[in-house]
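STRUCTURE:
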């Protein structure tokens, strides 16, 4: 790892439009970049993360800040696009921001991590679940406050095997790092469990007509469908499947657990199964934090609000722990210590993954609510 002394060359002339919002930045603040999609089809995931960071920052600042300084959240848009990951990372480095909560989507995260690690920036993603973010990288500066797809995938597969007991399963994915990765994990675990996978196929994210793949599903004899990807495509699959008489149960990862899916799928969303982080809002010890969200008309029960809150807490606790705004030492401190957060007491292994994280299975409802599967 290279300790940062100078900004990365060649990134000085980045478009000013990358900044979506920031307050008046002052030298006496400690800045944390919030990197994620704030434009495009996946904007709401960025909003979830921003709400978590903003709530944490407000509470930390109200309690006096860190080292006598206020925390400043600087929101930067990557559109959930891998090609924008390095652009945003370069902007962070050039603006001498030492800490990042994000990125949100796995593809953009993977594209940015080398820069952060090489330039000594602490990055904590609250949402990127692809194992490729950290596997075989020997990173010192990269962390998560969410589990990995090779934890989420087996949890989904175990549920399918033990609770659904399908005769045959079709698995679809969006051909991207996150979606294809978790779909592959589910496929592997199902096959190990003796479940027949009759279709494993990629679809094109952003398409508006999935009639061809729905026809394949209808002729595949599958009585259960797992989809790896995000909510826009899942919503269309559900709606168009219902319109074409496809009568199977669907399941997806946390990327489909977005209230916007209801507007796309309509009534066909009822009963969708989703793997999500456990609902930490139900923990009585989080009552004050939940109130802090709701007082600002923010929803604390989405997929990433409390993991983002926890990422912010981890960074600030690391700064307090070393007694300095020194990202190299903060990363060392995080690797060596546990942090108390709304998602529990967390700690990290050598490569920056959580030592423990729980995914639950939820039923998604047409009114936008969700309930733990019983």
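SEQUENCE:
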């Amino acid at each position: 790892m290279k300790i940062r002394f100078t900004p990365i060359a060649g990134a000085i002339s980045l478009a000013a439009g990358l900044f979506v919002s920031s307050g008046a930045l002052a030298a006496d603040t400690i800045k944390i970049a919030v990197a994620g999609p704030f434009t495009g089809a996946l904007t709401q995931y960025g909003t979830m993360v921003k709400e978590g960071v903003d709530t944490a920052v407000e509470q930390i600042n109200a309690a006096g800040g860190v080292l006598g300084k206020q925390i400043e959240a600087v929101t930067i848009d990557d559109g959930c696009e891998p090609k924008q990951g390095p652009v945003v990372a370069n902007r962070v480095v050039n603006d001498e921001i030492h800490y990042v909560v994000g990125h949100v989507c796995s593809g953009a995260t993977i594209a940015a991590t080398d820069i952060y690690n090489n330039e000594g920036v602490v990055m904590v993603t609250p949402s990127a679940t692809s194992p490729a973010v950290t596997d075989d990288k020997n990173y010192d500066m990269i962390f998560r406050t969410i589990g990995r797809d090779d934890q989420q995938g087996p949890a989904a597969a175990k549920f399918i095997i033990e609770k659904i007991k399908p005769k045959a399963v079709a698995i679809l994915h969006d051909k991207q790092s996150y979606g294809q990765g978790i779909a592959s994990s589910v496929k592997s675990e199902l096959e190990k469990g003796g479940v027949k996978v009759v279709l494993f196929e990629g679809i094109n994210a952003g398409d508006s007509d999935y009639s061809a793949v729905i026809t394949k599903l209808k002729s595949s004899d599958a009585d259960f469908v797992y989809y790896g990807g995000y909510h826009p495509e899942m919503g269309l699959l559900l709606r168009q499947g219902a319109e074409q008489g496809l009568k199977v149960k669907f399941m997806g990862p946390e990327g489909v657990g977005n209230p916007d899916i209801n507007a796309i799928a309509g009534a066909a969303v009822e009963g969708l199964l989703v793997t999500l982080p456990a609902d930490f809002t139900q923990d009585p010890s989080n009552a004050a934090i939940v109130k802090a969200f709701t007082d600002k008309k923010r929803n604390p029960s989405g997929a990433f609000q409390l993991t983002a809150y926890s990422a912010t807490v981890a960074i600030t606790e690391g700064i307090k722990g070393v007694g300095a705004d020194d990202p190299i030492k903060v990363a060392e401190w995080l690797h060596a210590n546990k942090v108390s957060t709304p998602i529990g007491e967390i700690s990290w292994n050598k490569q920056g993954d959580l030592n423990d994280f729980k995914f639950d299975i939820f039923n998604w409802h047409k009114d936008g609510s969700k309930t733990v599967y019983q």
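REMARK: The CA atoms of residues 290 and 300 lie 6 Å apart.
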